[in-house]
Amino acid sequence: MMVTPAWYMALAAVLFTLGASGLLLRRNALVMFMSIELMLNAVNLTFVAAGAGLGNLEGQVAVVFVMVVAAAEVVVGLVIIVAVFRRRATASVDELAEMRG
Amino acid sequence: MIEVIVFVIFAVASVTGALVMLAARNPVHSAMGLLLTLFSVAVFYVMNAGHFIAAVQVIVYAGAIMTLFLFVIMLIGVDRSEDPTERIPFQRPAVIGLAVGMVGLLIAGGWFAWVPGRPSAAGPPNGTIEALSESLFQSWILPFEVTSLLLIIASVGTIAMAQFRGRKVDM
Predict the structure, then answer these.
(1) What's B64's DSSP letter?
(2) How far apart are the CA of A16 and the nearest CA of chain B, in angstroms?
(3) Any idea of the CA torsion for B44, B49, B53, B54, to the nearest 10 degrees?
(4) Nearest to residue A74, comparing CAs of B27, B146, B61?
(5) ipTM of the complex
(6) Cβ contacts (< 8 Å) between B56 and chain A: which residues?
(7) Closest by alpha carbon to A74, among B102, B45, B31?
(8) Could B69 and A81 be called an inter-chain contact, meaning their C-beta atoms sit closer than 8 Å?
(9) pLDDT tens per residue, range A1-50
């Protein structure tokens, strides 16, 4: 019995779905952000698994770029959450439903 | 055989971590669950010959990004637990139904060909720093330089947003 790339793909599908449902279920902006990180990681796993299956290094190069973009995105997203928290004293997205500042 | 055992252990660990992240009321517990998932994904990278990627995963994700998350959790307070009732009454069953449908569709769609193309006879690629940097600095040098621009923009934007506090008057 061998671990084929298909196993990783199926696992990544499960992780991606968990991240997507976390994004829809949770109201805390920080936990929603963590769900996005989980979805990015699931996609990274598919890149690496497909690259290993095809004997191609480009999958890992793509993961490097995704990690850089994710790091930049996390920094900007967290500072937005902190800025919103300073004004409204909440991190719950349900309480930020109005567009009024 | 040992590969299957390692895969099963860390697959269970990563799904458990994701579920903990999903279900925990306390954001710190969510962060710990995500940390478990990130470490498991690093193990999967090693199993797929992505040695450098695995190291970067641990350093950048599990190290830097999770520290940043914990920092912000501490900054805005952990004692605020979520109100368990939704504004949309059918949100929770709808999300669970959508999630089951999504994972079902993904697995059904991938069942016939998860990885299209001819599988390599030579096995997985060489994921060491040398091989990766050769590809990165020869074929992908322009995207690599553009990411440096992206990082500068992100840090400048972060500093700019952090300075809004002094000028704006609170409500």
Answers:
(1) I
(2) 8
(3) 40
(4) B61
(5) 0.91
(6) 64, 67
(7) B31
(8) no
(9) 788 888 899 999 999 999 999 998 888 889 999 999 999 999 999 999 99
